[in-house]
Amino acid sequence: MTRRALVTGITGQDGAYLARFLLEKGYDVVGGSRASSGRNLWRLEALGIEREVRIVDLELLDSSNIVSVIEHEQPAEIYNLAAQSVVSSSFRLPVLTGEADALGAARILEAIRKIDRSIRFYQASSSEMFGDAPESPQSETTPFRPRSPYGVAKLYAHWMTVNSRNADGLFACSGIVFNHESPLRGLEFVTRKITHGLASIALGRGDAVELGNLDATRDWGFAADYVEAVWRMMQAERSDDYVLATGQSHSVRSFCEAAAEAVGFRLVWRGSGTDEVALDTKTGRTVVRINKEYYRANERISLVGDATKAQRELGWQPRMSFADLVRMMAEEDLRRLRR
Ligand code: NAP
Ligand code: G4F
């Protein structure tokens, strides 16, 4: 019989890649999307799968809606990817972020407990839960010290997932996932902001890209690699938690340099602090400048993951390198902008 999966957050980056992956595995994919945001299907369209998934109204803030979707669809697996996922916004919207990212997961777990305890559950947890971590790299045993309302909300959902497994016996797993990017990444995140911004300048449109902390580092992988690990977690004999990461960290500055090269610029940095700028050596044009608005309060700079457990137990390793990821994103932005 065809296995049915319910993917919350289907309109997001990971929702689109996971839906494509599950369809390739022969799943019947039901995608949850909140009606209130106007159903933006561009990512599913970009992957050519918008007609292959069935979209249902699913709002994380509404328990009764969650219960009726699960009762009606009877999925074998639920992947909870929906979230207010922008860390900087969570400082301005701490309560909404908690409602969606913390209580949203709790609402789904409660519904599973009441409707059908055999439904498998995946929670999209985040490396932001580590926050001011006492060690680097971070693994499943690293203590959590979140430094943003987003990290705090995700930590609640993570512990509810762990508790549902340990206290209630549900199959509930959590991916403690480090940053993963793609051409389908939202423009509010730094990687796509850079590739889209530099591609626009290269095509003669747009002004310098304005960024915050250039020396912030992240462990950046490719989103399509990560959804495979998520699926593997859900097929395991027993549920558990896994860090998903590349183990390599790069700075925002080096992301800029790689993206600039992919669109035909060569960068030279001038000045310091908030006066620092990047010029293209060929044209002398300023292509990156600093805007204090994008500096983040409370940020711990070095987050890098140790995914040894996922490699050992799930046989998973990310495939795409940092250089290939940046080039692919920049080239895809050039292609889209030319169209
Ligand atoms: P994304 O592109 O921002 O997608 C988020 C999805 O959640 C969108 O489909 C959005 O729907 C939906 N959503 C937001 N609020 C909702 C609500 N109240 N009810 C129902 N749906 C709601 O995020 P992503 O990058 O794909 O990430 C997927 C998940 O992994 C998120 O939970 C994120 O926090 C987590 N995560 C991501 C990363 C990463 O690097 N990408 C790393 C660690 C963890 P609309 O289209 O209606 O806005
Ligand atoms: O791209 P970002 O906004 O991603 P962030 O905050 O790490 O969050 C993403 O990854 C998390 C995994 O740990 C997810 F849980 C979360 O949902 C989301 O997908 O920022 C990356 C880094 C930060 O250090 C930030 O301070 O880039 C730095 N940065 C510098 N200038 C900037 C900018 N970030 C953004 N968004 N915009 C800037 O102009």
Task: Summarize the topology.
Elements: E1 4-8, H1 13-24, E2 28-33, H2 42-46, E3 54-57, H3 63-73, E4 77-80, H4 87-92, H5 94-115, E5 120-126, H6 149-166, E6 172-177, E7 180-181, H7 190-202, E8 209-211, E9 217-218, E10 221-222, H8 223-235, E11 241-244, E12 250-251, H9 252-262, E13 267-270, E14 277-280, E15 286-290, H10 308-314, H11 322-338
Helix pairs in contact: 1-8, 3-5, 5-6, 7-9, 7-11, 9-11
The protein binds NADP nicotinamide-adenine-dinucleotide phosphate (NAP) and ligand G4F.
Explain the overall architecture:
The structure is a single chain. By secondary structure, the chain is of the alpha/beta class. The protein has two domains: 225 residues, NAD(P)-binding Rossmann-like Domain (Rossmann fold); 92 residues, UDP-galactose 4-epimerase, domain 1 (Alpha-Beta Complex). 40% of the residues lie in helices and 18% in strands. The chain is built from eleven helices and 15 strands. The strands form four sheets. Strands 3-2-1-4-5-6-11 form a seven-stranded parallel sheet, with helices on both faces. A four-stranded mixed sheet has the order 8-15-14-13. A two-stranded parallel ribbon has the order 7-10. Helix 6 links the parallel strand 5 and strand 6. Helix 5 packs parallel to helix 6, helix 7 crosses helix 11 and helix 9 crosses helix 11. The protein binds NADP nicotinamide-adenine-dinucleotide phosphate and ligand G4F. The site of ligand G4F has 22 residues, from helix 4 and helix 7.
